[in-house]
């Protein structure tokens, strides 16, 4: 009986080690990447973040995405829960699209 309890405690510790409180980067949804390529938005890139909707707020996710794209416009695309590459305790994946901001420089006059 003692061995079973030790095994359960070890398994719980191992699963807890697979997660963290902060969202972490992962592969974005493939459908988003395909859509960007098909629409000709080659300069845009997709980002994915694994998170737990009970532990992480939408503001926290957006802050992580903005850190990953400091000089771009960040747009939330969506969340998926099935077949994500995320850990057990952070199963949701939020996908964002980074689009370069238009240059504010004016071309030199001729």
Task: Explain what you see.
- With 110 residues, the protein is of the alpha+beta class.
- The chain has one domain (19-100).
- It is built from three helices and four strands, in the order αβαβαββ.
- It has helices at 2-17, 30-38, 58-68; strands spanning 24-26, 45-51, 72-80, 92-100.
In short:
The chain has 110 residues and is an alpha+beta fold. The protein has helices at 2-17, 30-38, 58-68; strands at residues 24-26, 45-51, 72-80, 92-100.
Give keywords.
alpha+beta, four-stranded antiparallel beta sheet
Shape: elongated
The helix count comes to 3
| Chain-averaged pLDDT | 84
N-to-C CA distance: 86 Å
Q: What fraction of residues sit in β-strands? A: 25-35%
How many distinct beta strands?
4
Largest sheet: 4 strands, antiparallel
Strand order of the largest sheet: 1-2-4-3
Question: Helix proportion of residues, in percent?
Answer: 25-40%
Oligomer: single chain
Radius of gyration: 19 Å
Low-confidence regions:
none
Decide which structural class fits the backbone: alpha+beta
Q: SSE string, helix = H, strand = E?
A: HEHEHEE
Q: Tell me the count of domains.
A: 1
Which helices and strands, and how do they pair?
Blueprint: H1 2-17, E1 24-26, H2 30-38, E2 45-51, H3 58-68, E3 72-80, E4 92-100
Antiparallel strand pairs: 1-2, 2-4, 3-4
């Amino acid at each position: 009986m003692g061995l079973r309890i030790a095994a359960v405690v070890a398994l719980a510790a191992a699963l807890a080690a697979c997660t963290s409180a902060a969202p972490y980067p992962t592969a974005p949804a493939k459908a988003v990447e395909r859509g960007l390529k098909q629409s000709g938005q080659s300069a845009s890139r997709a980002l994915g973040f694994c998170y737990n909707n009970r532990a992480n707020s939408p503001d926290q996710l957006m802050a992580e995405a903005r850190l990953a794209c400091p000089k771009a416009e960040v747009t939330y695309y969506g969340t998926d829960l099935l077949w994500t590459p995320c850990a057990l305790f952070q199963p949701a994946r939020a996908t964002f699209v980074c689009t370069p901001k238009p240059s504010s420089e004016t071309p030199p006059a001729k």
